[in-house]
Amino acid sequence: MRGQLQQEILDMLARGSSLEDACDRICEHAERLAAGVICSIVTVDREGLLHPLAGPTIAKTYSDALDGIPIGPDVGSCGTAAHFRRPIAVTDIFADPLWIPYRPLADILAKEHGVKACWSSPILRSDGRVLGAFGFYYKDNRGPTPEERMIVAECLDLCSLVLEREEVKADNQRLAFFDNLTGFGNRANFLKTLEAAVDGASAPLSVLLVDIDHLGRVNDAFGHATGDRLILEVGQTVARIAAPAAIFRVDADEFAVLIENRSATDLSAVSAEILRAMENRTPQRDEHLLPVSVTCGGATFEPSGPPDVPTFLQHANLALHHAKQTARGGFVLYSDDLAGAIANRFRALQTVTSALAEDRIEAHYQPIVSLPTQEIVGLEALCRIRTDGGQILSPGAFAEALQDPSVGYLLTERMLEQVARDIRYWLDLGLLFQYVSVNVSMADFNQGNLCERIKSVFARHRTPLKHVVLEVTETVYMDEKDGKVAKAIEELRREGLLVALDDFGTGYASLTHLLNFPVDIIKIDKTFVDRMSDGPGAVIVKALLDMSIGLGTSIVAEGVETEDQAERLRRLGCPYVQGYLFGRPVDRDRATEALRPKTSPSASKAKRKLKRPVTLMR
Length: 618
Fold this sequence. Notes:
single chain; alpha/beta; 5-stranded antiparallel beta sheet
């Protein structure tokens, strides 16, 4: 009989019957074998609370009153049996101390069923943890008979099997749809919930994506335990601010917030509050002073449109991606204009990646000239792309792609290779010049191996590092938070490379940058050169020249395009210049011709002077 009942119960569950229906069937079986007995099954959750599960003949008022009572050493029959994990028989529920605190429950049993006694046995998991309790209720003041003990033993085994299987199933369901660390729904849960919300939407629906900036750096620097605490903190902050919206952890460093019945204005307000909360966060005790920030992107779905979940989600992801590239630490809301900008950037990425794959990346060189002598002392290597038809693309055609870290890294790799090769070529020809400068980006510093990359490339071409200057834009200095750039620059300078600060004065706190990041060359941005004729520009340029003398650094004025600008710079004492007036960027062959000594008497004199070339460094 036991085997038949077990198969029947398992078949019921396999056909989709509920756990409650299956356990009701177990109770019916027990009540049929033990005449006059009322049977019930309760479960115990992981917090130790009782919950009614089955009992087809027991009063609902009793089950409702039992729900949520914590188990303990004196909690009636079921609560005590579950606590001690052994059977508890109470022959008088009105006099036994275990039931005195629960007299209202006893009154319900007496009124509805005439019950006077209760015998409860724990339902245990295979590992010994309590899952619930199986109760027999008697209308006489008595305990279980030997036959009833046999009946209950059979039912306990079956209940243990069924409850454990369902618990494992629930755990698997939880693993499939919930994040273990935060307890929030996971990506699968988010997509399922989003689809249901879009299908039934009758009011605006918004998705906000919240990305933790530089979580990988936190894990690398302080360990994953610190990273996990940060994830929890951000998740709890988002949940507190966005409540009662649904919160999901959709990636290692990303949360999604599903905001129903609220407009794009509400979405912006929620994101602004999250950003303020993270900006004003107070580090927890013993926590490293981490520069924590988040970046947000979102999109809004109007119910008047077709229920296109993939496109809706793509819009939110595009907004977040754009925010991370152009407004890190801020919020971007998707719009059609944004879609156009992203499309342009995607086309630029395609242009660069194709050029990389087809070896169409070229280094072009613009001369840097000694203003007093008109001699070329150096060259700046500038990245150019040649089309399939042989035309050279303007830098603006692929500037957007340079914001992508992986693309920027690959372009630097290709440029270093070409510059090392070309310098070796010029040295072998006996041409006189001091250096070639190469631009590097934040992506190069983030990799953490910039110095080794440069040493390896230049060693392969037998090119001395003394002929290399690395140009770093002020934006890179502005993005510095964890000392990575400063350490890399110090390492590079120890190896003999010079470092130039490009676009100087276009960012903020530039003088502070010079205190924290010693450089060898300062490049005055074209903006100031263009403004020299109106007074303030000349004052600023003169101040920068004086400052460079005091700091012991060299200085180069960029963007010099007219004789008037060159003359003004000459009167101010500017030693080096760069710009169209002295030469546009050209390929290696034309740069080689520019470096060759001229055959005229004046050129011969210049050649003799270049045997001991002016040093760029003061």
